[in-house]
Each structure stands twice: as structure tokens, then as C-alpha cells.
Amino acid sequence: MTASEQTKTAIVFPGMGPSGFSEVGRFLTLDPFARKRLAEADEALGYSVFDRLRDSEDDYSEATQIAFLVNSMASADRAEQEHGLVPDLCVGPSFGQKAAAAYVSSLPFPEVVRLTAELARCEHAYFTEEHQDAVTHTFVRTPREKLTEILTELGERDEWYDYSGYLDDGFFMVSLRETELEWFKKAISQAGGYSMYTMVPAVHAPAFAELRRRAAEEILPKYDILDPKLPVVTDQDGTIVTTADELRTMLLDTFDLPIHWPKVVDTLKGAGVSKMYITGPDNLFHRLDRTKSNFEVVTVGPGKRSRPARKR
């Protein structure tokens, strides 16, 4: 690997996690980059995102998703202006795909705002009709062989489950029925693992092929997706995306394919990336051992002081 390859930089837009209105609302109100992006979002939607966010009690409501998108793009704006960020590759695990699509100019930001709102409504309708009891549980420090035993027991009882994410060694996301959640959490604890949080509705599960079909046939055809201006690494298998068709497929894959962060890391390392900017409200990806051990990581976003954490 040449010296020039060793200095490549990636921008990463994080996936959504639980967040409170106080921190999100404060950032939207006080940060100049966020205020500018929020005004664009309000104009695109024809309503006040802030007002709807304030009234929302759902961690993944339409307004919450738009606010997360706004804050992620605002953080990227700050990284460019204050850090001189000029990335070579882009990644958007899970919900971060939407900000990534805007950043690489496959869709203008206002179009991504509208797309995000439409997809949020589509997801809400789907989970009102289908898989009403599905949740996605995130947990850590669980050996793969122990997890296999736990999931085998679920399968022997004819209980549904799907892998929704492979985040790091011993770090997984699994979707299952909510009625099995307490049993599952207890089994994880007995295996030496630690439960983090549970997402409702569930995400990234092969069982949700019908949701993917609805998005593919009813929503995405409304949008003229362009070739990305810089390569995007898919969060499902680490493939490098360079065309509009590939990016469209990536946006659809998020509905029914699990995240695989180790494959993303392998692709970035193989491309010569040594520095990573994580732009947005991230409580997960910058903390992963696989991230910290392979890259110099700079976090830019709400609650962050934009200080780099040197790789170990």
C-alpha cells in the first residue's frame, strides 16, 4: 500500500438510536449549520419539523427521522468547514444511508427529506398491518456459539427470529417477536452478554421483504436517483457503489438485509482508509472496537466536541 493510499478518509453517517428531544431540539435551535438545514427541510415538507418533533412521543417518528437527517447533514457541513473534510469514500449504515445519498449528490437534500418522510409513512403503515409484534434487540459481549444455541432453541419452538445486524465481535442485532423478548434477554445475560436497547418497529430483517417491495414499487420510482459523486460502501456486505442503480438497490436492501459492519471495515481498510469522520448523533459506531482499532476517528455532531480519538 502506498503512502497516498494510507491517507484516505471516509465519512460515515451513523444509524439512528434512541435520543431525547432536549438534546436534539437544542442542537436544531442553536447550531447554525443545523438551523440552515432545518429551514431547507421545513420548506421541502411544508411544515415545521421542530414543532412536530416537540410533540412526538415516538423515537422513530417521521419528525424524529427528519431531525436526525438534518443533524447528520449539518454535522457534515461543519466537518467540511471547520475540519477541511474532503472524503474519499462515504458510508451510511442503516438510517445513515439517507444522509449518504444526499451527501454524494445522488439526490438533492430536499428530495432526500421528502423521501425520508414518505418511507417513514410507508414503514408505519406496514408495521400497523404486518409484524405488529416484531422488535429488534441489540446486545453485546455474547459469543457467537452461545448465541447460536439460544437461537436454535427459539427455532425448535417454531419461534421466528432473524439476524438484523453484525456489529462487532460478540455484538449483534436480532429481530424476534416481542413476546419472546424477556426470555431472550435473560438467555443473553446467562450467556455472559449485555442487552443494550430494543427498537420498535423492527429493522433489517429478511422477513420484511414485503416492506421492501412497497418501497421499491410505490415510493422510489418517484425519485430520480443519480450516480454518486464519490464511492459509497454498502452497510450490508461492504460492496463499493458507484452507479445510481447500485445505490437504489442499497437503499432497498436496508429493509430486508442485516447490517454487517465488519465487512464495511474490511472494505475501507482494503481501500486504504486510515481516518474516519463520523458525522451525526452517534452513540454506537465510533465506540466499536473494530472501528477504534483500525482508524483514527473524528466525531462531529450533537454533544460532540469534534475531537479525534487516535486509533489504538
Automatic annotation (TrEMBL):
- EC assignment: the record states 2.3.1.39
Q: What is this protein called?
A: [acyl-carrier-protein] S-malonyltransferase
Q: Which residues form the Malonyl-CoA-[acyl-carrier-protein] transacylase small domain?
A: 139-199
Q: Which UniProt keywords apply?
A: Acyltransferase, Transferase
Reaction it catalyzes: holo-[ACP] + malonyl-CoA = malonyl-[ACP] + CoA
Organism listed in the record: Streptomyces endocoffeicus
Q: Which Gene3D superfamilies match?
A: Malonyl-Coenzyme A Acyl Carrier Protein, domain 2
